[in-house]
Amino acid sequence: MSLFKGGGVAIITPFKKNLEVNYDKLEEIINDQIDGGTDCIVIAGTTGEGSTLTMEEHTDVIKAAVEFTKHRIPVVAGTGSNCTKTAIELTRDAEAAGVDGALVVTPYYNKATQKGLIAHYSAVADSTKLPIIMYNVPSRTGCNILPETAAELFNTKENIVGMKDATGNIEQGVHTMSLTEGKLEMYSGNDDQVVPLLAIGGLGVISVLSNIAPGYVHDMVFAFLEGRTKKAANMQLKAYPLIKELFCEVNPIPVKAAMNMMGMDVGDLRAPLTNLETGHEAQLKSALETFFGKKL
Question: I need a labelling partner for 8 at 20 to 30 A (CA). Which of 102, 203, 207, 284 fits?
């Protein structure tokens, strides 16, 4: 049974003016996401600025997400690290907090070999009973889970169940799904490639766009899964101009700017991330207004 189908939100972490985590706002956002149709809360990942949370904050944010979600939809926690020992600790803490699964990014900066990736993911999987989604995003980590490696991990570790594919390489996704006989739980990690990944057996998306359009992303995925493929394709194409602007700078800079433009008051970003460059603000605002059909 899959962890989830549909649109999972790679949720931002809201901050106060002093850059402490704003838990009241996080609860508000989670409730709005659930009311808006999100199918899964993915907390403390890249979009959630997990890499600039302290270990204590990381654990507290995950606990809060579980508490605020109240079992209405699954909660998946980002627990990856460039250190295997730390990834194990984060995963165990998330399991103790009551999450439904773990999203484990490849070890960044270290540039592990494929043998190293197998050892890393195997050690994390052996440390927990949680279902694990591997997160492959070479553009940010400098490390690519090759299809053969993904298949070996899927076939040898019962609780390694899925892949968040943010490679941008559809052929690699096809190869991975072929080697796992279509049984790997595949989620798009790119909002501009949701429908293509669904077409090769994907179950949904872990989405940045869902932060501002949860119902839209949910509907797009289920339109495809329910056989309304033309509608899903049209929705993918309609969203593309906004998706492009949501990645005009490194994520989550633009999506936090978009949420603030929409009056959500999610605060700034932690260093070394900085607020959206002035030159991109007008383009993002225009894309938001066109997508939602109203002035901001």
Answer: 284
